[in-house]
Amino acid sequence: MSKTIKSNEILPIVHAEAPAEEPEIQGEEAAPEPEEPEDVKPKIEAECGETPKCKSLRAHLDECTHRVESGETEENCNEELYHFMHCVDHCAAPKIFAHLK
Prior knowledge:
Elements: H1 7-10, H2 41-49, H3 52-70, H4 78-99
């Protein structure tokens, strides 16, 4: 007859002790965690994308995207995207850094 070997006979099971709780110090209250500041970058970038200069570049990007999605061309819209993002970044950067002060 063969003897069945149980897994705990080969590798013993070990249980860790529960971590000790730190004693509360009387007279001291836990300091509240500071709230996370609002991220203004997406809002500023959206506003900059609506400026007349950037809006015209967005129109070129949308036209290119339409041509590519309809299968009219084999081109990609990288150049149009870069021009639009450059315009948005150029407009948004000083406004974003002004919020960091």
